[in-house]
Specification:
Layout lengths: L11 H4 L2 E6 L1 H4 L9 H16 L3 E6 L2 H8 L9 H24 L5 E6 L1 H5 L1 H16 L3 E6 L13 H11 L4 E6 L20 E2 L4 H6 L12 H13 L3 E6 L5 H6 L5 E3 L5 H10 L6 E5 L1 H8 L9 E5 L7 E5 L5 E6 L4 H7 L7 H5 L13 E3 L16
Parallel strand pairs: 1-2, 1-5, 2-4, 3-4, 5-7, 6-8, 9-11
Antiparallel strand pairs: 7-8, 9-10, 11-12, 12-13
Helix pairs in contact: 3-5, 4-5, 8-10
The structure holds glutamic acid (GLU).
The site of glutamic acid (GLU) has 15 residues, from helix 4 and strand 4.
Length: about 400
C-alpha cells in the first residue's frame, strides 16, 4: 500500500478544463466471474460527478464490452477469433452502456454512447464530425461514454486498445488531461513482475527512447493494452498538449485518489491543446480554397475574434466544411488560415449576410461563424511575426 501525499492545487486533474478518463476491462469486469464490478463503478461515477460539479468537462472511454459479452456467449476460454470478439462486443456493449446509464441516471446525469472506429480519428472529415458530435454532447451537458466500435472493426482497421483511443479522443476534443486507469499503478523502470528493483517513474517530462524501452514488456493479462500501448497513448496525448496519467484504478474512487496524490506516472504536455491544433492548421501544406475578407473582418481577426460570414467578400476554389482555407486580405495577401465551417457553395449564399440570417438562407442552422477563432491562426508576418511563439496558456 502506498502513502498518500497531500493534494496539491497544482494537480493537472484539478486544473483541467476537459478530462478524458479511460477505464480498462480488468477494472470493470471481475476476472473470476466475468460480471460487472458494480460497486466499484459507483465510486468511479462519484468521482466523475465531482469533476463535473466543479465545472470540468468529462469524457469517459470505457472498455469492457468484449469481456462482458464473451461470458454471456459462453466464450470463456482462451484468445478469441476476430468474429468471436466482434460478436462478444455486440453483446457486451449493450450491457456496458446499460450499466452506465443506470449508474448515472441515479444522479440525474445523461450518458451518451459513442462508438468510434479508427477511421473516425484518421480521416479528417470523420474526425471533424466526431469532434463536433462530442462537443455538442458536452455543450448539452451529457457525459459521453466512448468505446471502439469493435463489432465492425477488423484487425487491420482497429485501434485494438482503448489507451490510444482515449488519447485520440483527447486530441480530437482538445482535452487537457487524460487519465488511464488500469491494473498497473504506472510506468516502472523495468517490469515490476520480474524485477523487484523496478521503480515507479512518477514524472515523464518527455517520452525518450529509454521511456519507451521501460514500457517494453509489462502487461496486464485481461485488457488488450499493455504498457507499450499506454506509452504510445501518452505520446499522442502530450503532443496534443494534454497531461496524461497512468494510474491504478482498482481502488475505490480511483480518480479522486490520483488527484489526492497517489503514486502514478504523469506525462507532461508539449505545448497546449490550442497551440497544437493551431500548429496543425498553420502547417497545412495546401489549403483547399481561400476567402477574401474586408477590412473590418481583418481588424476583428487581429483582435482574436472569429470570422463571420458578414465579413467575407469573396471565395476562391472548392472546399468542404472542415477543409483548411486561406483567409486573404482584399489585396490577395494571405493573412490567416482556418477551418471552414461551410463549403464554398453555402458560403456564396451567406457571405456578406448577418449570422442571424444563416438558417433562413441555407435551410439549416450551421455554425454562427465561417471560421471559429479556435480554428483560425494568423500567418501574416505583420500581425504575427514568426519569432513570436504562442503563449503557453491562453
Ligand atoms: N474495446 C474493447 C472492449 O470494450 C477493449 C479494448 C481494450 O481493452 O483496451 O472490450
Amino acid at each position: 500500500m502506498h502513502n498518500r501525499r497531500p493534494a496539491t492545487p497544482a494537480s493537472p486533474l484539478a486544473r483541467a478544463r476537459r478530462i478524458v478518463v479511460k477505464v480498462g476491462s480488468a477494472l470493470l469486469v471481475d476476472a473470476a466471474t466475468g460480471r460487472l464490478n458494480r460497486a466499484w463503478l459507483e465510486t468511479l461515477a462519484g468521482d466523475l460527478l465531482r469533476l463535473r460539479e466543479r465545472g470540468q468537462e468529462v469524457i469517459l472511454v470505457s472498455s469492457g464490452a468484449i469481456a462482458l459479452g464473451r461470458r454471456q456467449l459462453g466464450l470463456s476460454r482462451g484468445a478469441l477469433r476476430l468474429e468471436e470478439s466482434q460478436a462478444a462486443a455486440a453483446v457486451g456493449q449493450i450491457r456496458l452502456a446499460h450499466a452506465y446509464k443506470e449508474v448515472f441516471d441515479a444522479h440525474g446525469v445523461t450518458v451518451a454512447q459513442v462508438l468510434l472506429t479508427l477511421e473516425d480519428s484518421e480521416r479528417r472529415r470523420r474526425y471533424l464530425n466526431a469532434r463536433a458530435t462530442l462537443s455538442g454532447l458536452l455543450a448539452l451537458g451529457a457525459l459521453p461514454v466512448i468505446n471502439e466500435n469493435d463489432t465492425v472493426a477488423t484487425s487491420e482497421i482497429r485501434y485494438g486498445d482503448n489507451d490510444r483511443l482515449a488519447a485520440r479522443v483527447a486530441q480530437m476534443t482538445s482535452a487537457d488531461c487524460v487519465v488511464l486507469l488500469s491494473d498497473v499503478d504506472g510506468l516502472y523502470t523495468a517490469d515490476p513482475n520480474r524485477d523487484p528493483a523496478a521503480k515507479l517513474i512518477e514524472r515523464v517530462p518527455r517520452v525518450t527512447p529509454q521511456i519507451e524501452a521501460a514500457a517494453g514488456t509489462a502487461r496486464s493479462d485481461f485488457g488488450t493494452g499493455g504498457m507499450a500501448t499506454k506509452v504510445a497513448a501518452a505520446k499522442i496525448a502530450v503532443s496534443a498538449g494534454a497531461h496524461l496519467c497512468i494510474a491504478a484504478g482498482a481502488h475505490r474512487h480511483p480518480v479522486r485518489r490520483v488527484e489526492d496524490g497517489a503514486p502514478c506516472t504523469w506525462f507532461a504536455p508539449q505545448g497546449n491543446p490550442r497551440a497544437a491544433r493551431k500548429q496543425w492548421i498553420a502547417g497545412t501544406l495546401r489549403p483547399r480554397g481561400a476567402l477574401v475578407v474586408d477590412e473590418g473582418a481583418l481588424r476583428a481577426l487581429r483582435a482574436g475574434k472569429s470570422l463571420l460570414p458578414a465579413g467575407v467578400i469573396g471565395t476562391r476554389g472548392h472546399y468542404d466544411r472542415g477543409d483548411t482555407v486561406s483567409v486573404l486580405a482584399a489585396d490577395g495577401s494571405e493573412f490567416a488560415r482556418g477551418i471552414a465551417a461551410y463549403a464554398d457553395g453555402d458560403l456564396t449564399r451567406i457571405m456578406g449576410r448577418k449570422t442571424a440570417e444563416i438558417a433562413a438562407l441555407l435551410g439549416y442552422r450551421g455554425r454562427d461563424e465561417m471560421i471559429h477563432r479556435d480554428d483560425l491562426v494568423i500567418v501574416a508576418e505583420e500581425a504575427a511575426p514568426a519569432a513570436t511563439p504562442e503563449p503557453a496558456h491562453d
